[in-house]
Write a structure and sequence with these properties.
Elements (H helix, E strand, L loop, with lengths): L2 H8 L4 H19 L8 H11 L11 H15 L3 H11 E8 L4 E3 L1 H13 L1 E14 L2 E12 L7 E12 L5 E8 L1 H4 L7 H11 L1
Length: 206
């Protein structure tokens, strides 16, 4: 083969080719890892949960029952593991509770328990430090810092994220609405092989 043809065959892809490949890869990976239920609408689900619980009254403000509800929620999520998920989820969450953690939308304390068990099984540890609680009407806003060590994603590395959880309690102090507001890309997807590098590349272009 003539020397002048070698460079043509081995030449690197053009910037346009790389761009197209990255876009295609991003689309494929996001379709695999992000919620794949085409009927899911997290915003609509949250709005419906808020509307359906708008008349639900939690424990009286300033009461011992209110303090116990807050403490029970913080203690449960503060050091969530498989045993605690199995034993205490249905005590903390009402039978018809709604939960969205930005990764998944779940209805019912039984399904929430199963989800927490599965989540705990994929973790070496998870610690949530509650930094502040604010109250507005029936809603409680828990601001937190979370440290997780995952078994299969970035093993051995502590991943720290921050977020806020909106909670509504029923009269018994059980959670009826749990809506997280946090950066799940930083908390999970950023640590998935290949997908993480794609997400970081996208972020660098914004």
């Amino acid at each position: 083969m003539p020397d002048d043809k070698i460079g043509e065959i081995d030449s690197p892809r053009t910037s346009r080719d790389v761009e197209v490949m990255r876009i295609l890869l991003t689309s494929i990976l996001l379709s695999l890892f992000i919620q794949h239920d085409s009927l899911a609408d997290p915003v609509k689900d949250f709005q419906e949960a808020m509307a359906s619980t708008s008349s639900v009254q939690g424990p009286p403000r300033g009461s011992i029952a209110e303090k116990e509800a807050i403490s029970r929620f913080e203690t449960f999520l503060g050091h969530l593991d498989e045993q605690r998920a199995r034993l205490d989820t249905t005590k903390v969450y009402a039978p018809d509770a709604f939960l969205n953690d930005t990764l998944k939308t779940i209805h019912g304390s039984g399904a929430i328990r199963d989800y927490f068990i599965k989540t705990a099984q994929g973790l070496d540890s998870m610690t949530v430090t509650f930094d502040e609680v604010a109250v507005s009407g029936h809603d409680y806003y828990f601001r937190w810092t979370m440290d997780t060590r995952m078994k299969h994603l970035s093993p051995g590395k502590t991943v720290r994220t921050i977020g806020v959880t909106l909670v509504r309690f029923n009269p018994e102090g059980q959670v009826v609405v749990h809506q997280d507001f946090w950066d799940s890309a930083q908390g999970v997807w950023d640590h998935v092989p290949v997908l993480g590098s794609v997400i970081r590349w996208i972020q660098s272009k914004i």
